[in-house]
Amino acid sequence: MSIIVVGIDLAKNVFAVHGVNETGRPELVKPRVSREQLLPLIASLPPCLIGMEACSGAHHWARQFQALGHTVRLMAPKFVAPYRLSGKRGKNDANDAAAICEAVTRPAMRFVPVKDEHQQSTLCLHRTRQGFVQERTAAYNRLRGLISEFGIVLPLKVERLRREILPHLEALPGWARRCANDLLAHASLLDARISEYDDAIRQISREDSRARALAALPGIGPLSASALVASLGAGHDFKNGRQVAAWLGLVPGQYSSGGKTRLGRITKAGDAYLRSLLLMGARAILASVGEKQDRFSRWVRELVARRGYWKAAVAIAAKNARLAWAALHYGDEFRLTRS
Q1: Are residues 193 and 88 both part of a single domain?
Q2: Are the beta carbons of 110 and 143 closer than 8 angstroms?
Q3: Which of 10, 126, 132, 292 could bridge to 297 as Cys pair (CB 3.0-4.6 Å)?
Q4: How far apart are CA 252 and CA 254, in angstroms?
Q5: Residue ranges of the Transposase IS116/IS110/IS902 C-terminal domain (predicted)?
């Protein structure tokens, strides 16, 4: 019998491969395959279903295997862990490959969309920019902490901090003044880098028709639009918009039993960066809704009055996730009607 399903446990240099036939019997068990041997090994197999965990390098290997005619599915590692064979409880690469091979065939399994090189390049911009933002925040927090040791306490807002710290610099002792100046210069350099990345992301959004369509939705700007396009593609890996909202952790967790439905806080599963972008867009909508009388604005105000500010923000973010899927999935056929 020929191999129809293959599970691969990815690593940096040594991989584990587990393949089964139509009856589920192992036909290919290789606990140690070098990086140079992996692609020739997969190329020698007939077209089959290949499962891998979504980790570093997974999308690169997925594209390589798809080019050979295989069907590739990526899964979150936490969804694979329960399938580790009960009789082989030890954690090793061979058992992980067997668990992946089992998990990829399950009908209820959820998969991660395989990204092309352009999508990954765009996400590189987002990840690097986000790293610069975090580094800038850390620099300002470090600066506040250092000058507070000398009795100087300044506002949290960056613009006021930079403006109001200048009169205090001369009062600082020599080395403390040197540190404060260096932190301010480092933060300014990060500001310039972030601005350059913002320009690049806006350029990508302008050149992509799908990103332009998403940017037309309320609460979604060029930054969110390009990140959604890079992460979701055409949305074909999801059956509906609610799956996207669940994938981003914007739906409530369930604690139901005995016929009683109990809904808790949102799951916060999936991509925290995308979720934060959608939530920031939702907060922008809440800040600008004012007394507008269109249907959407009335719904937002009623939602805030009924459920409170933060639950309303989550509901708007989840709604935008569903709308984003519809815009990507249906393309030109998607029309947002607001009255």
Answers
A1: no
A2: no
A3: 292
A4: 6
A5: 212-289
* Amino acid 92: pLDDT: 87
> Is residue 168, in this structure, part of any structural domain at all?
yes
The total of other beta-carbon atoms located within 10 Å of residue 153's CB is 8
Q: How far apart are CA 27 and CA 291, in angstroms?
A: 67
Residue 220 CA, chain-centre distance (Å), reads 16
Token pair, residue 111, equals: 């998969």
Q: Quick check: 226 and 118 in contact, CB under 8 A?
A: no
Give me the CATH number covering residue 96. 3.30.420.140
pLDDT digits (tens, 9 = 90+) for 283-330: 999 999 888 888 888 999 999 999 999 999 999 999 999 999 999 988
Strands 71-75 and 49-53: parallel
CB 44 within 8 A of CB 54: no
Instruction: State residue 66's pLDDT score.
Output: 96
Say yes or no: 121 and 22 in one domain: no
What is the 8-class DSSP label of residue 289?
-
In sequence order, what DSSP letters do the residues of 304-334 get, joined into one string?
Answer: HHHH-HHHHHHHHHHHHHHHHHHHHHHGGG-
Q: Is residue 242 part of a domain?
A: yes
Neighbours of 213 (CB within 10 A): 20
Q: Which pLDDT score is estimated for 234? A: 82
Nearest residue to 228 (alpha-carbon basis) of 75, 119, 69, 82: 119
Amino acid making up residue 292: K
- Write out the DSSP string of 184-237: HHHHHHHHHHHHHHHHHHHHHHHH-HHHHHHHTSTT--HHHHHHHHHHHTTSTT
262 & 217 share domain: yes
Q: Is residue 53 domain-resident?
A: yes
- Quick one: 186 and 281 in the same domain? no
pLDDT digits (tens, 9 = 90+) for 19-70: 999 988 999 999 999 999 999 999 999 999 999 999 989 999 999 999 999 9
Q: Tokens for 136, please give them.
A: 């800038």
293 and 187, same domain (yes or no): no
